[in-house]
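Open question from group meeting: does this chain pack into something compact, or does most of it stay loose? Before anyone orders reagents, we agreed to write out a predicted structure and look at it together. Recording both the input and the output here so the notebook holds the full record.
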Amino acid sequence: MLIREKIERLAQEVHDARSAVARFLLLEANALENMSMQEVAEATFTSKATLVRVAKALGFSGWTAFHKAYVFERKETERLFEGVDTNIPFSKQDRTAQMRSHLAQIYMESVYLTNDLCEDAALEKAASILDESERIVVLGIGANRSLSRIFIQKMVKLGKRVDLCEPADARYFVNTLTFRDCAILISYSGMPPQREPMALIPLCQARGVPMIALTGRHDNVLRQSADVVLTIFSKEDWFAKIASYSSEVSILFLLDLLYSAYFARHYDEHLSYRMENVRAIEQDKTF
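Structure tokens returned:
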């Protein structure tokens, strides 16, 4: 798990002085390299003792060890993106061509690194679950719902039933599922347990519904509970980004991988079904 991801988790889970430090570390990560321990304590209105507690909560022996590792991680991640800030990838001074170039780089690197995190065994298992399911339901909130609509449209064109639940009705819908169906749960944070779609995990488990999770690399409730996990890549900071460029591209790519792996299980059949439907629809348009 990336140190940044651990910090994001800490910022969400604790509600004391450590949360203020965690948020500062995410927002001011680039400035941290040249800041002393005392300067960080003053900037966060905390103390050196609190900084040590934060470092230990993140798995380090002390502040110095944490500081060195976190700065190194930031530099290595930035090197992959060659200086493009995924949180704010363009400034008001940038020309349109620069903006296009920076976004293209984020897209390409995000897909490349998502692919690097994806394991063939996990993808094949997920495709098998989809293939064996009578119904598939996609569970998520916010932008994740919008991103999943593209996947749903592709699956429907292969004759596979896929539903996107409204959050208000999700619990009732999941309660109609059985072990013959499956649920795709999308959440980068995968926490807290009381937030959807994580809040629906106990109901899925009680009804024996297989779960495919799309979530971040860090340890979380969704990763612990799902039957198979596909990992979302993200270099964004929750509290500093202007848009979820990296993570949204990663999710779209994973959903395309899911669709493609499912398609490949019955390649000739799916290809024939897809082409016949396209021809029938195009013929209808001529009348």
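Observations to bring back to the group:
Residues 126 and 162 are 15 Å apart (CA to CA).
The chain has two domains: 3-80, 113-281.
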